[in-house]
């Protein structure tokens, strides 16, 4: 049935980084801590799931990581990345949602020159 001029339009919220990026991690994992810290520095705020507290999340990781509970595992819009770098996560996000992916920082020498 076509909508008339008085039809109520419900605004659709655009996806956020947390909607598109999920980081599976576990306590005590230095690789997880490094990735999560780097993602925060890059301005990413993903959904984070502790696989020791969520059996379904652990099963998801095993499905992505050839039966292993390798963390960090990151899912970006349905694509799994096992032990990725922040740059790999940014690249995957850029491919599906360029408006959400922060620009990578300039090389460190330029950061000093630019005062960043």
What are its keywords?
four-stranded mixed β-sheet, single chain, Glutaredoxin, alpha+beta, globular
SSE series? HEHEHEEHH
CATH architecture of the domain at 17-96: 3-Layer(aba) Sandwich
Structural Rg: 18 Å
What share of the residues does DSSP label as strand, in percent?
A: 5-15%
Structural class: alpha+beta
Low-confidence blocks of residues? none
CATH topology name of the domain at 17-96: Glutaredoxin
For the biggest sheet, the summary is: 4 strands, mixed
By CATH reckoning, the class of the domain at 17-96 would read Alpha Beta
Can you describe this structure?
This protein is of the alpha+beta class. The chain has a domain at 17-96: Glutaredoxin (3-Layer(aba) Sandwich). It contains five helices and four strands. The protein has helices at residues 17-20, 30-41, 55-64, 86-96, 108-114, and strands at 21-25, 47-50, 73-76, 79-82. Strands 2-1-3-4 form a four-stranded mixed sheet, sandwiched between helices. Helix 2 links the parallel strand 1 (21-25) and strand 2 (47-50). The longest helix has 12 residues, at 30-41. The protein is globular, with a radius of gyration of 18 Å.
